[in-house]
Structures are given as C-alpha cells and as structure tokens.
Amino acid sequence: MTVINPELRYRWLWLLIGYLVIAVVVYLSLTSEPVEVDTGLPYEDKLFHLLAYFFLTFWFMQLYHIKRHVYFLVALFIGLGVLLEYLQGYDANRYSEFGDMVANTVGVMIAFMLSSTHLRFILQKFEHWVGLN
Question: Which of 2, 17, 91, 112 has the least CB density, counted as fewest CB within 10 Å?
C-alpha cells in the first residue's frame, strides 16, 4: 500500500495556520519578555514546551503522511526546538535550558508516534464533517 499525503481542499489554509503557529513559537521563544502563566502545576514550563512542540508537529502530521516528509518534519521541529532554546542564551533576560530542549523533543516524538495511527486523519475528517471537502 502506497502512502500519500491526504487530499485536503483547504490545504493552503491549514498550511497557513501551521506557519502562523511556527511564527508564534519562534516569537515566544525569542522575545525578551516571555509570557508568564502560573497554573500551579509542577514543571509547568516543561509541560508548555512539550505541548507547543506536540501541537506544532501533530498539526503538520495531519498534512504530510509520506514517510520522508514525516521524518523531515521530525528533524526540523527537533532542530527548531534545540536552536531556539540555544538562542535564548544570548538574551540577557532569558536563559537556555537543556530540560526545555528535552521537553520540546518529547513533544515532537509523541506527535510522531501518533502520526502512525488513525489520528493522522483528524483534519481530513474535520473537512468532511463540516462539509469543506
């Protein structure tokens, strides 16, 4: 069975949303005044990193199913997480943290694991369900 990327009528919109999420992650990672959210959860910073990179990777896994595309995205988002965290070390108001790099990578890997399940068709099913296809 040949794996192909899903046929999505509004692929351009889904890509635009994905690129906007990348832009938000880059901005939030490099701004000198990061957003502070206090939920009272232990290690909430790591949880937010994990969720951000999970969502980012999982979103693009909805659009790309061909294995070489998936592997490229995994490498891209792991690299982005490491690079942005490293660059934070150059801002006097921020610091680079290895634990954040690990949390980013774990988020990417969870999304990667889920990309081999039926969950990779959520966006395709959403288009069908709301009548967009």
Answer: 2
Q: Nearest Cα to 99, choosing from 47, 53, 48, 46?
A: 46
pLDDT for res 131: 76
The pLDDT value recorded for residue 104 is 97
What's the per-residue H, E or C state across the chain? CCCCCCCCCCHHHHHHHHHHHHHHHHHHHHCCCCCCCCCCCCCHHHHHHHHHHHHHHHHHHHHCCCHHHHHHHHHHHHHHHHHHHHHHCCCCCCCCCHHHHHHHHHHHHHHHHHCCCHHHHHHHHHHHHCCCC
- Tell me what pLDDT residue 6 has: 84
Q: State the Cα–Cα distance between residues 20 and 85, nearest whole angstrom.
A: 19
Model confidence pLDDT, tens digit, residues 79-101: 999 999 999 989 888 889 999 99
Distance of alpha carbon 132 from alpha carbon 41, whole angstroms: 39
